[in-house]
What does this fold into?
Amino acid sequence: MAKTRKPARAAGATAITRQRAGRLYRLLGLLGEKPQTRAVLTRRLSQNLRGFYRDLEVLRKFGIEVQLVEGRYALTGKAADAQGRLPFPDPGLSLGEALQLAKGRTVTHRNLKEQIAEITG
It folds into this structure.
């Protein structure tokens, strides 16, 4: 009988670059300060309009709410909470390094162990 596989987590489905992860982190920091216009955000992040809207879509995909109120983008909730939901770019670990990090009893350790088990069978 074949093993039943868990569906892939939504967070794992979107791989992001280190540059994008840093930009998303900075975007949430700016939005956490106060509501800001699109022009200010794109200028401070050195980003074009298309990239700005793509980044907003990534934030929404991970359950981070950003609302447009009177021409200004505002973060719903605290920036620190939202930053904790951001996807993390692939750290490029070896299997041995991942096994070392998987030692522990927290939910995060168990998640990493499950990912290793999927790879190693």
In short: Strands lie at 66-69, 72-75. The chain has a mean pLDDT of 88. The two ends are 15 Å apart (CA to CA).
